[in-house]
Amino acid sequence: MTERVPVLQIGQILLVSIQTDLDDQAVVHLQDDLTARIVGTGADGVVIDISAVEIVDSFVGRMLATIASLSLLLDAQTVVVGMRPAVAITLVELGLSLGGVRTALTLEMGLKVLERSRVLRQGPSQELAESGLSDEDGVRADPAGQ
Amino acid sequence: MLAIAANDGVVRARQVARTLAQQCRLSLVEQTKLVTAASELARNTLVYGGGGTMTASLVDERGRRGVRLVFADQGPGIPDVDLALTDGWTSGSGMGLGLSGSKRLVDDFVLESAPGRGTTVTITKWGR
Ligand SMILES: Nc1ncnc2c1ncn2[C@@H]1O[C@H](COP(=O)(O)OP(=O)(O)OP(=O)(O)O)[C@@H](O)[C@H]1O
Ligand SMILES: [Mg+2]
């Protein structure tokens, strides 16, 4: 019965949007799938959209932290986007700060984070110069810091 | 009473906790805290207790309404309860936050356990 969460590829970025209440097996599958896809595609960024996720417990929290650090080893940056305020409050009280996980409020801001780290690695791209993306506003590194 | 015998039992425990929290008109943050605690305790029941049950009810006490969840298993029990309730202590590969974190997330938390006699955790979240 365990479902698999689709991993979408958009250019150099892998996008995962968690839409249902996943059982632990599905969470483990997602971690394995994502790791394999980073290696298989050479993606340099991963976005995990949790805007539909109603709770993050220690199991899911650990998965997010593991993907974030694994992806770095594989030369990709992970950003978790859309964490609900109630989820953030609960995570902090649970004792999980997710310190090593980049977060952004929205998908759009998450993509900016990835674009910026690509710039840092490769120097400014033509598109970035033209799109006028700034490197400020609305992006935070720690859900506990809100 | 809900059986927690496999991973889907943990998912159902979360759903039942959510439904009762809404019936009790807990705020969204309080609902989220209760459901997160339920998820942690249901997983412990499955992983360490070898499976068990969750009994969920709405309770009325001294004019207060609340949600009470009782997680029970007949597993090996917890030899040192204080140690198990320490942030970061795990006998396995977890993060050791399930018990201590759940305790912070709810209003009442009672852990009863003895080696060889299983474990029962009773949590209550009160509405206003
Ligand atoms: N129902 C139970 N039966 C037997 N032992 C238990 C039970 N629940 C918890 N324990 C013991 O208490 C320890 C601490 O539990 P806790 O949930 O806090 O952490 P964890 O499950 O190890 O990690 P996490 O929940 O953060 O993933 C467990 O490692 C286990 O040894
Ligand atoms: Mg646990």
UniProtKB/TrEMBL annotation, chain A:
Protein name: Anti-sigma factor antagonist
Higher taxonomy: Bacteria, Bacillati, Actinomycetota, Actinomycetes, Kitasatosporales
UniProt domain STAS: residue ranges: 3-114
Residue ranges, annotated region (Disordered): 124-146
Source organism (scientific name): Streptomyces camponoticapitis
A Pfam entry, by short name: STAS
InterPro entries (UniProt xref): Bact_StressResp_Reg, STAS_dom, STAS_dom_sf
Transmembrane annotation, as ranges: none
Alphabetized PROSITE patterns for the sequence: STAS
UniProtKB/TrEMBL annotation, chain B:
Database matches in Pfam families: HATPase_c (PF02518)
UniProt domain Histidine kinase/HSP90-like ATPase: residue ranges: 29-128
Transmembrane parts of this sequence: none
InterPro entries: HATPase_C_sf, HATPase_dom
SUPFAM superfamilies the record matches: ATPase domain of HSP90 chaperone/DNA topoisomerase II/histidine kinase
Protein name (record): Anti-sigma regulatory factor
